[in-house]
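From the shared-data thread, chain only:
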Amino acid sequence: MIHSMTGYGRGEEEGLGLEFVVEVKSVNHRYSEIVIKQPRQYILLEDYLRKLVQKYISRGRVDLFIKVKEIDQKKSQIKVDKDLAIDYYNSLNELAKDLKISSDVSIYEIASLPEVIKEEENETDLEQVKKVIEKATVKALDGLLSMREAEGKTLFEDLISRISNLKDYQAKIIARSPIMLDEYRERLRKRIEELLIEQVDENRLNQEVIFMVEKSNVTEELIRLDSHFDQFINTLNYEGAVGRKLDFLVQEMNRETNTIGSKANDLEIAHLVVEMKTELEKIREQIQNIE
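Structure, as tokens:
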């Protein structure tokens, strides 16, 4: 079943005291393009996430956004720079001696000096973060695929309906072709009679009609159209990316339809060809959004 290239999905996952929100949106694009926007500290996960998206989506532009919110206060560690504290203490004692004053410095005063005591947050393991982000991303991609599949069903029904319309126009052209030749024969007879004012040579008339039949015969084009219609419907039922093949088939249908229009010297068939080309243009627009 065909999939649309347009969709949206959202996934949330909590872990490591953080909440990860992943949003994925996709739009139609001739090729595959994946854009990932995540916090700078997770930049190393970009290639992994890109490959993950490619497992789900083969064509279209995909934008993936990752937002992170802290939900639990991270535990931190207190670190004391003993060497720096000793340097402070020695320097203060030397200064006191030089100034000939008392150097009664308390431990609390030294501890309050810059960089002696620092609070450091525990670093989060990137591999653990990757597992949590992956879960949120898969949820978002599943939602995206569901939307693309739902829209694909709508496109499928519309395209089947339009192919049915094309078959109706084709049937009318088939039915019209012999009538067109009979009408041409009568028009030709009347014109000859008006010009010559004498009995029409039936053999010559038949030769002219045969020439007209050969010139305006669109049987081959109509047969090929039948084949293209069947291939188009079969392709709609394939799994995977079929948008490019459908586009090719529509081009072939257009080519055959144009040939019919140029060969058939008949106003009614010309009107039917215009209707077919209008329908084909609508089909072409629709398949631009098929993966």
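The beta strands are 7-15, 18-27, 32-37, 60-70, 76-80, 117-121.
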